[in-house]
Amino acid sequence: MAPTKAPDSSRRSDRSRRAILDAALALVTEVGYRRTTIEGIAARAGVGKQTIYRWWPSKAAVLMDAFLDLAGRSAEGVAAESESAGEPGEGEQAPGIPDTGDLVADLKLVLRATVDELNDPVLEAPTRALTAEGIVDAKLGAEFVHKLLDPQLALYVTRLRAAQETGDVRADVDPRIALELLIGPLMHRWLLRTLPLTHAYADEIVDYAVGGLAPRP
Question: Cβ–Cβ contacts within 10 Å for residue 126, how many?
Answer without folding.
Answer: 21
